């Protein structure tokens, strides 16, 4: 056996002897109390952190679960176009990220649809008083149609509409607007979510595919 091997064995023996001496000098009860104190501190710190997370208000999230556009066209193709004809359906989800607090709608929840920054449709999603339970989501369905909805597109907007209509895909913006509070807290939070949509015309015989859209929510 080499000298290095003997040295390693000796070093190990010294560490073991020192450790045993340290434990013996503390005494079994003292060591037990130290371990218990460390465990209690860790449990209290974890519990405090969880309580802070649970009671800090987290704003609701908004996603568009489904959207279908059955019709979107200029209501009068001979004019500079100040009106649109449309037919669409939506499924919008509001998710409550809080662990304990419910989210309550304190004002009607509605959605607005825009093309090229110009508003052309508005539809209700939920009435005031509705609740979203902690950790859950509520999905709201709505449909809307019009043969002649006024819209301020302007020449540039009309040209863009014609281009997208020819391409077969419309770039729309959905805005979800409302107001919520988190009982027992009384503070009101404005809900304003912006959802970019890319929709192709969808029919019963040729339904367009849709991927869920996560909205940018502000409150």
From TrEMBL:
Residues spanning the membrane: 31-56
Entry keyword set: Membrane, Transmembrane, Transmembrane helix
Compartments (UniProt record): Membrane
GO cellular component: plasma membrane; plasmodesma
InterPro entries the UniProt entry points to: NDR1-like
GO biological process: defense response to other organism
Protein name, entry field: Late embryogenesis abundant protein LEA-2 subgroup domain-containing protein
Lineage: Eukaryota, Viridiplantae, Streptophyta, Embryophyta, Tracheophyta
